[in-house]
Q: What sequence folds into this?
């Protein structure tokens, strides 16, 4: 696993969605962490929003961004737990074309170092939806750091070898 410094860096347009019944932009610490990391990595924070834990609203927001050809990827934070209000994975089920099961597996593998067996309560997941990547992370600051620092900063870097998500973007809608 390495960054090929000779390869071209291709910035990715990323929409950021915080899923929460209580947070605002002013106190959205996990969203702020992700926004900072997205920008520091050289990507474009295309849009940022907060939606309540409501499956219908989440699906509508996701569909809007999926339909926008300028959005390459969506990163969500929150709504991936086990409570009745946690519906982010269910919303992704409504919009997905394909699952990316390795994302959730890798996330839980990485987070076990920080939270031990509590990682079993995470339903972090990822999908492709009509050519757009969607990555759903838990809402804690530690979780978004694990997800970005351990997975997304590499897989959304076009220079990452042996492979990365960016190089697949032109082919995601092949038939």
A:
């Amino acid at each position: 696993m390495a960054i090929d410094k000779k390869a071209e860096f291709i910035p990715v347009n990323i929409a950021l969605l915080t899923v929460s019944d209580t947070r605002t932009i002013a106190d959205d610490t996990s969203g702020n962490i992700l926004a900072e990391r997205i920008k520091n990595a050289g990507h474009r924070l295309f849009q940022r929003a907060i939606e309540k834990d409501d499956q219908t609203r989440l699906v509508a927001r996701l569909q809007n961004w999926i339909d926008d050809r300028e959005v390459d990827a969506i990163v969500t934070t929150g709504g991936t737990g086990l409570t009745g209000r946690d519906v982010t994975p269910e919303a992704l089920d409504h919009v997905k074309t394909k699952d990316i099961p390795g994302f959730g597996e890798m996330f839980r593998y990485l987070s076990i170092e920080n939270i031990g067996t509590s990682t079993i309560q995470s339903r972090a997941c990822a999908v492709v939806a009509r050519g757009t990547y969607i990555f759903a992370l838990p809402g804690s600051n530690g979780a978004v750091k694990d997800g970005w620092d351990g997975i997304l900063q590499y897989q959304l870097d076009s220079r990452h070898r042996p492979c990365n998500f960016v190089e697949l973007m032109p082919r995601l809608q092949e038939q």
Q: What stands out?
A: DSSP finds five helices and eight strands in the chain. The radius of gyration is 15 Å. The chain has a mean pLDDT of 96. Helices lie at 29-40, 55-67, 88-95, 101-115, 141-155.
